[in-house]
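User: I'm designing a mutation panel for RNase H type-1 domain-containing protein and want to avoid disrupting the core. Could you give me a predicted structure to guide residue selection? Please restate the sequence first so the numbering is unambiguous.

Assistant: Good idea. Sequence first, for numbering, then the predicted structure tokens:
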Amino acid sequence: CQQGGGTGFVMIPPWGAPIPVVHKLKFECTNNKAEYEAFVLGLQNAINLNARHIDIFNDSELIINQVT
């Protein structure tokens, strides 16, 4: 991604509507780095919401192969 690119994900809590989250990146990065940023930000948001169970859906084969 270029400097100023972004990442995003959607959190779907059991108690309400989906929550779209976008994050602007302030550094140059590859597409893989942007995918990791979204993955980590999603986990951090789940932790902040005290999630006890999460399902992660991701289309990045690199991330899927490295975290499973």
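For picking mutation sites, this is relevant: The chain has one domain: 6-67. The helical segments are 31-48, 61-67.
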